[in-house]
Design brief:
Elements (H helix, E strand, L loop, with lengths): L12 H19 L3 H19 L5 H11 L15 H16 L10 H9 L2 H22 L2 H32 L17 H15 L3 E8 L1 H4 L4 H18 L5 E6 L2 E7 L3 H18 L1 E2 L2 E2 L2 E7 L6 H17 L4 E4 L2 H12 L1
Parallel strand pairs: 6-7
Antiparallel strand pairs: 1-3, 1-6, 2-3, 4-5
Helix pairs in contact: 1-2, 2-4, 4-5, 4-6, 5-6, 5-7, 6-7
């Protein structure tokens, strides 16, 4: 089964070092009686710590945390989301400290650009950074003498440019590595672009070994999802991913096709065990995933490897069976047969 990708920023050694150093700086600021600076650093430490807890807290609490903080909920993982709205609060707090206590600002105000870039995507951070930078430069020029401003403002601009360059390199690397990513952020299902290649390998191995192979098409019924908002849609994706990960065998794999639609590959599984697995998953989804007092129901379509099948035909047959289950009222599993293909072709002609 596809394993989750745990190589996220909040688990890196550098992230742990940044959290510890930020906490120590807070303590030093308190001992030095620089309370405005201590408030800023303490807030930043809390932000780092909350982001780290997003990996170890209970899934329900983590989901609430990410729903509060995410800027792109359709792409964020429930394990790697960051409470980014808190970053806006800290940015405002930074400007407030610079306004009230400019003598305590020192060099740490230069960390504002890097902090915003650290927690936001480049296109989101850029407008926020432009506004806060203009305000920071204006406040520096207003509070300090012309000689100090002549030194501080260019330094701030240079640090701003360095921060943008670092973040640009980060985004460039992320885009280069994106095609290599195998899992979906929300559900940890394997990416769709790997489906055909992986399934074709399973078909070849099944034919070589003479073993069975089945495919299950899973889709939540529209009646269960039509009234959900964006955050609830994301929550359902997360819960389905967890359920599949916990209930499938180690050699099974699952892929996210579209919203609330998955394809499950079951090696060494004939049609009867496959329909039992599909029914078991359907019942667990109905029993364990509930929103607004509504149980999530699903329709399952099962296809089995026959002579002449390839990856495309197996997926097509599973989809036809899933559509058949939905036409029968949903909340059920259906096993594909050749007559279903003939009926589907006739309907398409009509």
């Amino acid at each position: 089964m596809q394993q989750p990708d745990n190589s996220i920023l909040t688990h890196s050694p550098a992230y742990a070092v940044a959290t510890v150093l930020s906490g120590l700086s807070t303590v030093i600021a308190v001992l030095d009686k620089q309370f405005a600076l201590a408030i800023f650093l303490g807030s930043f430490t809390a932000l780092l710590f909350l982001s780290r807890l997003g990996k170890v807290l209970s899934p329900r609490f983590t989901q609430k945390l990410n729903q509060f903080g995410t800027t792109s909920p359709t792409e964020e993982s429930f394990e790697s989301g960051t409470p980014r709205r808190l970053s806006i609060i800290i940015a405002v707090l930074t400007l407030a400290i610079l306004w009230v206590a400019p003598d305590q600002s020192g060099i740490w105000v230069y960390s504002l650009p890097l902090m915003l870039m650290f927690f936001f995507e480049f296109k989101v951070a850029l407008p926020i950074l432009a506004i806060t930078s203009l305000l920071s430069i204006g406040l520096i020029a207003w509070h300090d003498s012309p000689f100090v401003s002549l030194q501080a403002v260019p330094n701030f601009i240079l640090f701003l440019g360095a921060s943008c360059a670092l973040v640009y390199l980060r985004e460039l690397r992320r885009r280069q590595l994106l095609p290599l990513r195998r899992t979906d952020n929300l559900s940890h299902a394997a990416s769709l672009q790997h489906l055909n290649e992986d399934l074709q390998k399973e078909i070849q191995r099944s034919e070589r070994e003479g073993s069975d192979l089945s495919v299950v098409s899973l889709k939540l019924d529209p009646t269960a999802t039509e009234k959900l908002n964006n955050k609830e849609h994301d929550f359902v994706q997360v819960e389905i991913g967890k359920l599949l990960h916990n209930n499938l065998r180690i050699f099974d794999s699952y892929y996210r096709l579209e919203q609330h639609s998955f394809l499950i590959v079951l090696p060494h599984t004939s049609s009867k065990p496959a329909i039992k697995i599909a029914d078991s998953l359907r019942l667990k989804i109905k029993q364990q995933i509930q929103l607004n007092k509504v149980n999530m129901t699903s329709s399952m379509g099962v296809s089995h490897l026959n002579v002449g099948d390839d990856c495309h035909s197996m997926v097509q047959h599973a989809h036809i069976a899933q559509d058949k289950a939905l036409q029968r009222g949903g909340d059920q599993s259906y096993l594909f047969s050749d007559k279903d293909l003939n009926n589907s072709e006739q309907n398409n002609e009509n």
